[in-house]
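Module 6 notes. Inverse folding takes a fixed backbone as the condition and produces residue identities as the prediction. Think of it as a translation problem where the source language is geometry and the target language is the twenty amino acids. Below is one complete input and output pair. Work through it position by position during the lab.
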């Protein structure tokens, strides 16, 4: 009974040997920074061991793919432990882009996203992908002025034949009549109260009569005079 109590107390303090218990699947359930550190170290050992194993020449392509998937899965778990450690107030292991194992050796190929380790880079399809990425991209030469002129015709400068043969003008008249008919259909066709037809809109043949500048100024002065009289009166 005392042994179980001491074991539970050690687990709460985070000093329980990681090898004596299973790593929790729900990472956020672990609230002890030392325990999170130990589980992270255990994951790093697994990653280091599998990265060394994936170099084995005796492995088949299927085994290499499965092993590479396991390494990527372990890398994601390591990242989650680092997030939990940071959230609990511990050190931030995510500052460095490089990943190191327990012995301080850098794990080649580790980083963000899905990665290929060891012989996984030589798998069919993966090797071609790396070769395509390593090739320099061919820059397309800029088009010369002569090439641009080949694509320019009379329509670019506005010399269309639509207005000359009357096609565009007929189309504009048709659209104007269509819009006018739609406007008439929306109402009863009667002139609203208070509206007066402008000269030229009565259909009596009389054209537009625009006021001169003197007439406009005289009208404005007359309006100001009326407003002043209304205020004084």
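Target side of the pair, the amino acids:
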């Amino acid at each position: 009974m005392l042994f179980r109590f001491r074991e539970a107390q050690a687990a709460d303090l985070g000093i329980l040997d990681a090898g004596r218990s299973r790593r929790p699947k729900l990472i956020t359930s672990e609230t002890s920074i030392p325990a999170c550190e130990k589980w992270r170290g255990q994951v790093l050992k697994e990653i280091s061991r599998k990265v060394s194993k994936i170099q084995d020449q005796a492995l088949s392509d299927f085994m290499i793919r499965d092993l590479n998937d396991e390494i990527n899965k372990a890398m994601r778990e390591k990242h989650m432990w680092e997030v939990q450690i940071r959230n609990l107030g511990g050190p931030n292991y995510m500052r460095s882009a490089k990943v190191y194992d327990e012995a301080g050796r850098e794990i080649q190929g580790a980083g963000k996203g899905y990665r290929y380790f060891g012989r996984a880079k030589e798998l069919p399809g993966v090797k071609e992908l790396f070769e395509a990425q390593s090739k320099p991209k061919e820059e397309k030469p800029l088009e010369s002025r002569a090439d641009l002129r080949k694509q320019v015709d009379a329509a670019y400068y506005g010399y269309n034949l639509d207005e000359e043969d009357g096609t565009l003008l007929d189309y504009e008249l048709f659209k104007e009549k269509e819009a006018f008919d739609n406007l008439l259909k929306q109402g009863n066709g009667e002139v609203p109260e208070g509206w007066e037809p402008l000269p030229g809109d009565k259909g009596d043949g009389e054209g537009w009569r625009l006021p001169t500048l003197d007439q406009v100024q005289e009208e404005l002065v007359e309006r100001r005079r009326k407003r002043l009289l209304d205020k004084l009166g």
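Reference fact for the lab report: The first helix runs from residue 2 to 13.
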